[in-house]
Each structure stands twice: as structure tokens, then as C-alpha cells.
């Protein structure tokens, strides 16, 4: 019987994933990763996402499979939380879930899988592995392939994503059908797990100090030049954001760029958000690496459609892509994920465009 | 899969048949409240008093010196906080060690938060309290010294009589957490100069949820709870009659069987230790060389990690433990091994086997085969050892 280590959050998706694998005859071992300990900071919340751990354990008990809690707090703090705050501190908008998948789930967890002779690993992600290739989840409303581009290619042959072919509604039905009442109607978690109240500034302040330059006042600049106000820290802003900007303009204004050197938040009208060129680093390929002139579909955020694009330059470290039509709010720190039809070819982290920027003096 | 092997008796033990039998009537027909004046109450009261006497007798104590609690943690809290609060104005200081159970460590922190002075003494690499450090720490400002008798992680046995003697000579009170000592070392409160002793039921075949604090006659104690006058006001709340009776029975049995059972456990533990060291020459046995309780074997193998070893063992049906489990069940590096200055690489690799009533020689033979095999695989994965 093939052993599979299932990463279980205590939510409905990973619970159903585990249950389906049990049904399919695998030797299932459940594991919940302990990634953060809110402990003293949030006295009203149970320590170590305790409720989630307990739910996962109860589901495993119901399925008749073992369950373990894996303490990956230290590595997660280093690989995910530290990166998160440092990215904000340099004016970018990180996606911690991508790094958690890349480093925590599909590297550190796989080490644990090896330790218990688990040939396979599984999660409750809405994505599919078909013939060793990563594809979008079947339900376009739930597809999570955008977050999985950083996986090592070798992992794909060991990866099982049992709910990737289901819709969320079907997953809930399965949960109910399988008798997993505990999780069947659980609400979707939207928060970043280590930013439970949605206030990422608090996390930055705690890790880098209140006096970090990214939390200090700086100017609002117009994309066309000129200072139009001041803000209380560029880490509070993200490209495409509309809230918290100075008023009095004839059209809605958005953050179009963040310049950490000048501590500036650059704002402009909707039109100024549009771009046709995107640069990405930290590349990872799940298919054959692209080369100059290749045509591909690029997606710059989780909820954006993929847009046809041509590779301008491609090296090991850096990719430049030209979209066939302009895309809105290309945000440094977010992921650029490359698709062909439903297959994920690879991805990278979006870098700031080296285009000319307004300066405060202008 | 072969029969599962339970090697985690320091965590908890099954309720003994004799204990269950002794308790059953008190869950049924003899359900009375010991504080009631009627027949049901009297019956319960008599049974509870008898249990207290039997428990006291097994420890060489008097019945009035036994205060039943909900377990070891409450007993530790009551001793440390209760004694300190009684004496805080005259003697604000508390002395303890870095290898105590969290129930004592957290109580010591509470005392600190309430304005007490705390001094934590040194321990050596085997886990024995450093005599000079203890001597220096206990001064005329010291209300209480709290030193664990048998360490739950490494099994080291402290020289409690000597340490308590030092404390008494300075006018300080002395508490020992005897949760792991019960049934493993000889306990005679007539000759042992300690003022408070914590014990717990579920380590010796009684249910979880019952324990006791020995409070020497005349030793001060300020209660943690407020309510009725049960247990001389030291521990208000309707008494846990059935479990107190079960606990007394379990302690009687543990004390009566101690020498024979300890010899059996020590023989098995030593056989396992010898076999493991023969197959894994660079393994480190913590607490080795110090007087050690007969049932604990705490081993670290470089290039492995506790979490993976515990999982791999459990998947083979072998129960063991490591460090102290967090509320979630995840493992944090042991504060005890850290205090013993065990290198990080070894501290994160520790596995504690604790033997007990459920174990047989066949278990030792099987684990002596299985553990080295799992270690070899783990080290091959970690890349530290090839082949």
C-alpha cells in the first residue's frame, strides 16, 4: 500500500483530500504544520491555531489514520515571515502563500514524508497533476495553481491533489457525504495565517521595529511629477490600491508605484496602472524553460485572467515578457505565472520595471 | 503489524484493574458527598478518610498531611505559590532549578510576577543540582526551595535529603516534585526532611485527574482556591471521592511492588540501552552516569530529529516521546536538555523511552532491532551518514 503524507489544515479541502485518498486505498498519514504561535500576542485566539489542529486530528481519527503535528515554525519564520516583511520594507507586495508552498509545504514537509517512508505527498489545493505536469484546478472560481509555480519539478511525480478536479461545492458535498460534518460547512479562511487580523503593518513593526523606514512618513508623488501630500509609511500601500490616497482629483487615483529610495508612494489615474511589459526574477520552471520569442499566457495576480504574451528576454535569473494587450496594476512582489492552456509552465516574482520614474523635485 | 508497544509510561499509565475495582462503587451506589450529614454522606466521608490514611501510610506520613489535588500540576502550584504567599513578607525569595516540570517553572514565574525574587541554580551535564550553586542560592531571604526528585525527561535522581537538609539549616522550606519518583524510589516522609511533596495518580495506575500534596504538619500553605472548608481549607471543593480511593490503592500497590518492579524495569532498560549503544556507537544517553530512575531511557542520535523519529516509531506501533509537547501536540526543544547544555544537534534529536507495567522483554528485543534500523534510514536521509 502506497503511503501518502497529507498536509491537513483542519479545513474542508484538505480533510476531503485525505478522505478521498483513504477511499482510493492509500496508506494515509495526516499532518498539520505548526507554523506560527500567536501565543501571548493574541490572547483571544488559541495558541498555535489550536482549533485547526484539533479539527484535523479529529478528522484523521474519524478516517482511522494517524495524525501528527509538525513544528515547522522556525523554518517558516525564516523562509516566509521574514521574507514577507523584508519585501514590504522594500516597497513590494509579497505573497507568503507562494513561499509557504515552495519552501514549507513542498520542501520541508517532503523531508518529513521521506522520514516516514511516504512516497507521496498530498494537499487540498485546487490544482491538478496530470502526467507529472501541473495544471489549473478544474473549478475556475477556486483554481489555486497560481500559488504553486515555485514547486520543484521533481515533486510533481510524488504529488497528489485529490480535490483539484472538484468544485468547492462538490468538495463540501463530499465532506457531508463522507460524514465529515465537523468541516463540511467551515468558512473559507481568507486571512494570511500569520496576519490573522489582516493588519500586515503590525507584523512588519513587530519584526523590523516601528522605526523601520517603510513605516516612516514619505511623500505622495504624482506619476506626472510633483508632491501632493504625505503618507505614514509606504509599507501600508500596494500597487493598484485606491484607499488612503489624497483627494481632490478629477478622477479616481491609484497607487501606481512605490519607490523605497525616496519613500515615495506614486499615484496616478487608472490609465497609469496599465502596462504591457513585466519583469520577473526568482524563476522556476515546471515545463521546458521559455526562450526569446516564445508565446505564452502570463498571469500577474491570483484573480486576474491570463493574458497572451511574448518572451522578450529569458535567462536563468530573469524574464521579460510583453503582453499582447495592456494589463492593470503589475505589482512588484506578486507572482508572474506562465500558462499554456491549463498547464503551469513556470513562474517568477515580479520585479519593479526599470522605467523612468518621477522624482520628488520634479 | 505486530502488537503495539507502549514505551511512554512517564506520560501516563493505564488504570490498574484493582484501582478500577476499588473506585467503581463510588461512581454508583456509594455516590455521597462527604460533607453531607446523612448516611450517603457519612459513607463517602469514611471511605475518603480511609483513602487518605492508606495513602499517608504508604508514604510514611500522617493522614492530615495529605491534601488531595486534581493532579501533579495543582500540587506543584499549591506548594510553590501557596508556601511562598504564606511567607513572602519575611522571606521573599524562591530557589529552584532549570530542569523542573513546567508546573513548577510556571509557578515560579508567577511568584516572580507577584514580586518575589527567584534564583535558579545550576545543574551539571548529567542533570544533578550543583551543590555549590544551591548552597549559594539558599539564603536567609529564602521562603522555599523546589527541586524535582526524579526528572521526567532524563530520569536523574537528585539527592533530595541532602538538598533539603541545606535548606532547613537556613530556615527555608523545601518542596520536591515527586511525580516521577513515586513507585520508583523509596519514599518515607518520616525520615525525609522535606515539607512538601507532589505526587500524581495517573503515573502509577490511577486515573488522570487525581494527585496529592504532602504538607508537613506545621508547614504553612495558602490555598489557591476559595470556597468550602474541604481538606482543612487547603483545597476547597467537593472531594473527588472515587479517584482519591483509586489513588490510595494505586500508591499502596506501587509502593509494595516497587523493589521487584524497579529491578525488572532496570534490567529491561539496561538491556535496551546496551543494545542501542552497541548498534549506534555515537548515540548519547542523557543522564547516564548519574543516579537514574530505572524506567527512563533518553537517547539522542546525531543527524536525526525527534519529530521524525517519533512519527516513524509510532507508525511501527511504538509509542515514545520527546521534549515537552506544546498544547497543539507539536514538539519544542526540551528545556531540560538545554539546561544540561546538550548541544542543539542532540537536543533536537532526543527520544525518551519510559518503561512500565505494560512492557516485556520481547518489547525490548523488538525496539532494539527497530530503533537502530529507523536511525540508519533517518541518517541516510539527512546525508550525515552514508551506507
User: Helicity level of chain B, as a percent range?
Assistant: 40-55%
Radius of gyration of chain A: 22 Å
Strand order of the largest sheet of chain B: 2-8-7-6-5-3-4
Structural class of chain B: alpha/beta
Radius of gyration of chain B (CA) equals 21 Å
Strand tally of chain B? 14
Sequence stretches where pLDDT stays below 50 over 5 or more residues of chain B: none
Largest sheet of chain A: 6 strands, antiparallel, barrel
Low-confidence region ranges of chain A:
40-47, 356-362
Number of strands of chain A: 17
Oligomer: heterodimer
The coarse silhouette of chain B is globular
Measured by DSSP, the beta-strand proportion of chain B falls in 5-15%
SSE arrangement of chain A, N to C: EHEHEHHEEEEHHHEEEEEEEEEE
Secondary-structure class of chain A: alpha/beta
Helical stretch count of chain A?
7
Write down the overall mean pLDDT of chain B: 95
Descriptive labels:
heterodimer, A: 362 residues, 5-stranded parallel sheet, disordered C terminus, B: 387 residues, alpha/beta, 7-stranded mixed sheet, 41% helix, 13% strand
What does this structure look like?
- The complex is a heterodimer of chains A (362) and B (387).
- Chain A is an alpha/beta fold and 362 residues long.
- Chain A contains 7 helices and 17 strands.
- Chain A has helices spanning 12-23, 50-63, 73-89, 96-115, 168-177, 181-184, 200-208, and strands at 3-7, 27-34, 67-71, 120-122, 127-130, 133-136, 159-160, 218-222, 227-231, 253-259, 264-269, 274-285, 295-299, 307-314, 319-328, 335-340, 343-351.
- In chain A, the strands form 4 sheets. Chain A has a 6-stranded antiparallel beta barrel.
- In chain A, strand 14 and strand 15 form a beta hairpin.
- Chain B has 387 residues and is an alpha/beta fold.
- Chain B contains 11 helices and 14 strands.
- In chain B, the strands form 4 sheets. In chain B, strands 2-8-7-6-5-3-4 form a 7-stranded mixed sheet, with helices on both faces. Chain B has a 3-stranded antiparallel sheet with strand order 9-10-14. Chain B has a two-stranded parallel ribbon with strand order 1-11.
- Chain B is globular.
- At the A-B interface, strand 2, helix 2, strand 3 and helix 4 of A face helix 8, strand 13 and helix 11 of B.
Amino acid at each position: 500500500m502506497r503511503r501518502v503524507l497529507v498536509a491537513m489544515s483542519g479545513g474542508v479541502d484538505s480533510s476531503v483530500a485525505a478522505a478521498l485518498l483513504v477511499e482510493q486505498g492509500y496508506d494515509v498519514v495526516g499532518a498539520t504544520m505548526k507554523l506560527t504561535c500567536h501565543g501571548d500576542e493574541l490572547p483571544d485566539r488559541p495558541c498555535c491555531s489550536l482549533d485547526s489542529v484539533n479539527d484535523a486530528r479529529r478528522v484523521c481519527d474519524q478516517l482511522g489514520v494517524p495524525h501528527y503535528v509538525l513544528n515547522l515554525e522556525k523554518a517558516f519564520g525564516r523562509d516566509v515571515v521574514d521574507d514577507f516583511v523584508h519585501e514590504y520594507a522594500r516597497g513590494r507586495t509579497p505573497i507568503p502563500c507562494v513561499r509557504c508552498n515552495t519552501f514549507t509545504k513542498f520542501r520541508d514537509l517532503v523531508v518529513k514524508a521521506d522520514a516516514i517512508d511516504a512516497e507521496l505527498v498530498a494537499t487540498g489545493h485546487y490544482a491538478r497533476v496530470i502526467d507529472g505536469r501541473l495544471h489549473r484546478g478544474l473549478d475556475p472560481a477556486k483554481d489555486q495553481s497560481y500559488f504553486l509555480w515555485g514547486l520543484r519539478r521533481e515533486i510533481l511525480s510524488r504529488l497528489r491533489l485529490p480535490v483539484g478536479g472538484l468544485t468547492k461545492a462538490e468538495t463540501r458535498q463530499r465532506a457531508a457525504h463522507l460524514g465529515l460534518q465537523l468541516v463540511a460547512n467551515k468558512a473559507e479562511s481568507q486571512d494570511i495565517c500569520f496576519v490573522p487580523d489582516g493588519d500586515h503593518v503590525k507584523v512588519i513593526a513587530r519584526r523590523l521595529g516601528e522605526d523601520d523606514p517603510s513605516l516612516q512618513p514619505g511623500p505622495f508623488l504624482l506619476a506626472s511629477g510633483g508632491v501632493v501630500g504625505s503618507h505614514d509609511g509606504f509599507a501600508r500601500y500596494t500597487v493598484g490600491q485606491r484607499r488612503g490616497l489624497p483627494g481632490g482629483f478629477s478622477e479616481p487615483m491609484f497607487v501606481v508605484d512605490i519607490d523605497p529610495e525616496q519613500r515615495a508612494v506614486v499615484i496616478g489615474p487608472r490609465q497609469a496602472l496599465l502596462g504591457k511589459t513585466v519583469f520577473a526574477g526568482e524563476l522556476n520552471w515546471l515545463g521546458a524553460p521559455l526562450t526569446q520569442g516564445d508565446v505564452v499566457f502570463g498571469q500577474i495576480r491570483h484573480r486576474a485572467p491570463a493574458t497572451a504574451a511574448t518572451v522578450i528576454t529569458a535567462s536563468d535569473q530573469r524574464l521579460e515578457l510583453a503582453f499582447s494587450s495592456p494589463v492593470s496594476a503589475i505589482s512588484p512582489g506578486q507572482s508572474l505565472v506562465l500558462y499554456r492552456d491549463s498547464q503551469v509552465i513556470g513562474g517568477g516574482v515580479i520585479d519593479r520595471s526599470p522605467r523612468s520614474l518621477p522624482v520628488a523635485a520634479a | 503489524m505486530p502488537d503495539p508497544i507502549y514505551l511512554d509510561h512517564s506520560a501516563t499509565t493505564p488504570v490498574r484493574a484493582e484501582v478500577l475495582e476499588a473506585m467503581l462503587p463510588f461512581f454508583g451506589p456509594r455516590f455521597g458527598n462527604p460533607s453531607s450529614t446523612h448516611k450517603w454522606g457519612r459513607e463517602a466521608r469514611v471511605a475518603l478518610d480511609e483513602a487518605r490514611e492508606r495513602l499517608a501510610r504508604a508514604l510514611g506520613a500522617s493522614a492530615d498531611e495529605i491534601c488531595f489535588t486534581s493532579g501533579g500540576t495543582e500540587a506543584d502550584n499549591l506548594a510553590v505559590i501557596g508556601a511562598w504567599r504564606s511567607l513572602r513578607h519575611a522571606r521573599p525569595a524562591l530557589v529552584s532549578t532549570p530542569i523542573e516540570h513546567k508546573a513548577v517553572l510556571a509557578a515560579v514565574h508567577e511568584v516572580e510576577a507577584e514580586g518575589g525574587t527567584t534564583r535558579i541554580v545550576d545543574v551539571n551535564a548529567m542533570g544533578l543540582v550543583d551543590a555549590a550553586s544551591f548552597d549559594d542560592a539558599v539564603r536567609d531571604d529564602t521562603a522555599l526551595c523546589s527541586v524535582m526528585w526524579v526528572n521526567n525527561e532524563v530520569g536523574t535522581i537528585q539527592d533530595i535529603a541532602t538538598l533539603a537538609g541545606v535548606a532547613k539549616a537556613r530556615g527555608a522550606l523545601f518542596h520536591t516534585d515527586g511525580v516521577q519518583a513515586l513507585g520508583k524510589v523509596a519514599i518515607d516522609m518520616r525520615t525525609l526532611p522535606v515539607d512538601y511533596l507532589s505526587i500524581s495518580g495517573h503515573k502509577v495506575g490511577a486515573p488522570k485527574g487525581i494527585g496529592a500534596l504532602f504538607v508537613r504538619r506545621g508547614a504553612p500553605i495558602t490555598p489557591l482556591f476559595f470556597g468550602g472548608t474541604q481538606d482543612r481549607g487547603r483545597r476547597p471543593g467537593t472531594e473527588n471521592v472515587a479517584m482519591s480511593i483509586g489513588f490510595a490503592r494505586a500508591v499502596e500497590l506501587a509502593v509494595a511492588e516497587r523493589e521487584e518492579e524497579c529491578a525488572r524495569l532496570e534490567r529491561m532498560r539496561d538491556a535496551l540501552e546496551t543494545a542501542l549503544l552497541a548498534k549506534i556507537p555515537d548515540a548519547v544517553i542523557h543522564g547516564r552516569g548519574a543516579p537514574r530512575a530505572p524506567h527512563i531511557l533518553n537517547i539522542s542520535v546525531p543527524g536525526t530529529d525527534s519529530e521524525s523519529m517519533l512519527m516513524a516509531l509510532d507508525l511501527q506501533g511504538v509509542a515514545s516521546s520527546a521534549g515537552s509537547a506544546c498544547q497543539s501536540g507539536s514538539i519544542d526543544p526540551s528545556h531540560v536538555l538545554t539546561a544540561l547544555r546538550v548541544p542543539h544537534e542532540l537536543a533536537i534529536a532526543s527520544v525518551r523511552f519510559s518503561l512500565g507495567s505494560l512492557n516485556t522483554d520481547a518489547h525490548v528485543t523488538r525496539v532494539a532491532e527497530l530503533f537502530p534500523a529507523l536511525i540508519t534510514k533517518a541518517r541516510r536521509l539527512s546525508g550525515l551518514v552514508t551506507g
